[in-house]
Specification:
Layout (H helix, E strand, L loop, with lengths): L7 E8 L5 E2 L8 E2 L5 H6 L9 E9 L6 H16 L3 E7 L5 H12 L4 E5 L12 H14 L4 E6 L2 E4 L4 E2 L8 E2 L7 E4 L2 E4 L14 H9 L5 E6 L7 H11 L6 E8 L7 H12 L3 E6 L22 H13 L2
Parallel strand pairs: 1-4, 1-5, 5-6, 6-7, 13-14, 14-15
Antiparallel strand pairs: 2-3, 7-8, 8-11, 9-10, 11-12
Helix pairs in contact: 2-3, 2-5, 3-8, 6-7
Bound molecules: succinic acid (SIN).
Succinic acid (SIN) binds next to loops.
Length: about 325
């Protein structure tokens, strides 16, 4: 089938606030996430009626609890649907809290050659004025109009790339930002207006099938912990983590991502402990706790840097890399 004629969309649900419900319609914070099925979310958007859609409930969770089992289920189902010639794109509904991590993992593992569009909401489905229906409608517009593959995030009329996107606000409807890169596009009355190309998430242009198979077969991800440098920081936490590994923990420590201050500086007490960990075989990657910019390399950097990845994405990149060993 000519890919331009493939029109079937798949919408997969994983939970989140977009599927949340509160006891009172005016309550935008005291709700329970992941209560409404994805079929009902789709049925609540009149603009989607008449489109050729399939819906699939892959999970029903608050995304604070996201992890390997749901990522494996998503990756497995996505790989299958993206292979189908009649399917042009897949939309995934997801909680906002770890959306950027799922987007990063899926892009790095799948390198999709069709659009995979993640969307979400900041208000529950039961709100007086929910944002989920508009976001879902915009996500479908993006899924239908994007001409290239990749993982995109749609929220509040903006389209973000998997590499840059981050949740930056606790409450506002436009809770996501792409930092200095800016959004890839916006959606205006169902029309996608493009600003820039998507930034590749890895050096590979095509999927690494062996890496995907290892991920799908894994019982757990290699343990990589995130530590933050700050005023008055110490090394006790890192030393305890390393000691635990040597005391036969079920998941011994394999890596540490340090969210450094500013341009990747790290408190001397923490540096000493992380260096001890490194000398015992723990991989160390340095990122910055600054929400904008990246660690600009210089000879004084104490550890390998994350090549611009935020601390949470650097943690995932290192875990995926360690899975290959
Ligand atoms: C979640 O991440 O599942 C809950 C919060 C949200 O979706 O905004």
């Amino acid at each position: 089938m000519d890919p331009n004629e493939a029109r079937q969309l798949v919408i997969m649900g994983t939970g989140g606030t977009i599927a949340g419900r509160a006891a009172q319609a005016g309550d935008n914070v005291g709700y329970v996430a992941a209560q409404v099925g994805v079929g009902d979310l789709v049925a609540a958007v009149p603009a989607l009626a008449g489109l050729s859609l399939e819906v699939e409930q892959v999970a029903q969770i608050d995304s604070k609890d996201m992890g390997l089992p749901v990522w494996q289920a998503l990756a497995r189902r996505l790989a299958l649907h993206l292979e189908r010639p009649e399917v042009s794109a897949v939309v995934v509904t997801h909680g906002t809290d770890t959306l950027e991590e799922t987007a990063f993992v899926l892009q790095r593992l799948l390198q999709p050659n069709k659009p995979v569009v993640l969307t979400c909401a900041m208000r529950p489905a039961s709100a007086l004025v929910p944002d989920g229906p508009q976001n879902l409608s915009d996500a479908v517009s993006v899924a239908r109009q994007m001409r290239e593959g990749g993982v995109f995030v749609v929220c509040a009329g903006q389209v973000h790339g998997a590499l840059e996107v981050a949740k930056v606000h606790t409450y506002r409807l436009d809770a996501f930002d792409s930092g200095e890169a800016g959004p890839i596009a916006c959606v205006e009355e169902g029309c996608v207006r493009r600003f820039r190309a998507e930034t590749p998430v890895s050096g590979r242009a095509t999927r690494d099938e062996a890496a995907l198979s290892r991920f799908l077969a894994a019982r757990e991800l290699p343990r990589v912990e995130l530590v933050t440098s700050h005023a008055d920081a110490g090394g006790d936490l890192v030393r305890a983590l390393v000691a635990q590994g040597h005391e036969g923990a079920t998941r011994p420590l394999r890596g540490i991502v340090v969210a450094g201050t500013g341009n990747g500086s790290v408190h001397e007490a923490l540096t000493a402990a992380v260096n001890e960990a490194r000398s015992r075989g723990v991989r160390v990657v340095l990122s910055s706790r600054c929400p904008q910019g990246r660690v600009v390399p210089h000879p004084g950097l104490v550890f390998d840097h994350s090549a611009g990845l935020s601390p949470v994405k650097a943690r995932l990149a290192l875990a995926l890399e360690l899975l290959e060993r």
